Write the structure tokens for this entry.
Amino acid sequence: MIDITNDIIHMHNDHISLVFTIENKRLLMRYLGKPIRHYHQSLNLQHYKREFNTQHEGFDPKVSFDDLPFVYPVAGHGDYRIPALQVSVNGTAFCDLYFKSAKLLNHKPALPHLPSARDGECLALVLEDPYLHFEIHLYYTLYPEGIITASAMLVNSDQDLTIDHIQSVSLDLSADSYKLMSLYGLHAKEANLQEVPLSHGITRLSSTRGCSSPHTSDFAALISPHQVIAITLAYSGNFAITFDHDSFGKVRMQAGLNSDTFSWHLAPHERFYTPEAIINIASDIDTMTQQFHTFFQEHLFSTRHHERYVLLNSWEAMYYDVSMTRILKQVEKAQDLGIELFVLDDGWFRKGLSSHDSMGDYQVNTNKLPDGITGVAKLVHAHHMKFGLWFEPEAIGKISQLITDHPEYVPHVPGYTLTQGRHEYLLDLSRQDVRDHIMTMLSGYLDTHQIDYIKWDMNRPMSDVGSGEKAHRYILGLYEILEAITSRYPEVIFEGCASGGARLDPGMLYYMDQNWSSDNTDAHDRYTIEQGLSLLYPPKTLGAHVSTVPNHQTARLTPWESRFHMACLFNLGYELDLTQLSDQESAQMKKDIAFYKSIRYWDARLIQCDQGFEWVKKDQSEAVIVLYVPLYNPLLSQKRYRIKGLNPQLDYYDVQTQKYYGGDELCQIGLSLPLVREDFHTILIHLKAIG
Ligand code: DGJ
């Protein structure tokens, strides 16, 4: 709903109010937060006369632009905080923005070539530069889940313009004490949570790696005593989430393209669209998570409804050394254990047993697989399983036929040495011929073979693109291919991967049905990775595999049970050599898979609790809880584990122990658990409501 009266624009629903005011033709943001009925200027800031400051025509001399909450700030006029926009014309970097119009659109416009949320009424605010005459259109949509989406469009007038900096959204927030929550990491150690007080000055979370990256996730939550404001982007390339915490304690929070690696030439009358920012207003972190999960599933992520097949991935069992004999042995055993999908990972087209050759050629190596992919697909289907195949479509090998035939497909600044990553380069997805090549190659496989699932990998950061424009055009090109391939083959399941979770973001999950979370499958590390990722992403979008011990990444030995428990609330898969399992392990695996199948389609919520995860049916009639005790420690023997998501009015019984508890008892007092002399120990509790 929207009220526009006396230069006040109040957009609101049951969860959020967003208030803008127009003052002397300047568009200001007066409030963003929990809903209010009306706005009566209560949030106008107090100003006092001070030196070393600027004054502005039409405003009280005590008012400095440096204090005003501009909706889309620009630099150079006295607002010295971070701008949302910087453009230049003939080398002069200057602009100004005045309010022009506000309009409610019945249907939210989709963003061309960019992922964007569906549904909703949309507020379009238009600002205009008085001299260059370009316009900025700002779009805001409120969702019932407590989410706002925001994006900006620059409509050029009749000059050549360079966009040096453009943000999807800028939010000016009141003075408060703020903490900043974010996720940082590395390859195979993604999504580590950190929470720090927001310091004064500028804080920036960003990527320059050409992908959203495992180093800094495109997510931040600003926590104040009253509420949480979290932000992320439906974008998979270089991003920045920036905070300017001024001397009064106010915060300007922005999200958008990273200007360190971005610039764009806009010809006369062209338009530029920013990626969409997703803003989550919640009372606490748990609510933030539920709001993200629901919003993503209802309004942003792929709407194709696929089964959550239990898969077996060949990577850690075979690496590059794939063969028909080895596949046959795995597949025979897999069928018996209840596996539903076999994924043939890397190696099938490589001449050798490493990542050194053939990337991009996709000519099956018939020494390894004499009957080609047709033979493997037939074999897998004959064992009543679906068949999945691995590709790294964006890459081209240093040693490959493709690079010999098409050296121009590699982004390269002439005269400079090319930068390798994993013996390969990225293909230049900003080029139409490269996009056509990838589409033809993938369609060729999907049309000729019965492939039910594609694992789309990407294994190196971007380099040698030579311009910020090309880095962004690469991502637009990627989205174009993903849109085309997922629409042409709607029945095929697509899993995103980038050396694990190096490009796991709302933009990729708009196209992909699921994403590989991390190459690290060690149960202990998985706990923190899943904690981080599931703050945002619903469990069915996150791949989680049980692998062997010692773990191939960490060499750690963790119990079988813990490895399964850490995977079973997400998208379960196995990545180990089934022929090496003991009879006891095989029997356990069969039971585990059957249990997973019984809970995977619950209409349930994933909730993070004290040292674990809860998977609770939305009607609270049943729950599976996984608790984690990293180290055997008698000092913790008196610890109680409080369960969050149950109905306090109901009574529950524990399926394993047959004990009865009140929901209120489990929430308020919690459970105390037996001390087990085991490190990396997990406990799975299955509760059913009585009556
Ligand atoms: C990186 C992925 O994260 C792995 O799962 C595997 O597919 C390898 N690439 C294959 O090269």
About this structure: Residues 104 and 123 are 5 Å apart (CA to CA). The chain is about 20% helix and 30% strand. The mean pLDDT is 96.
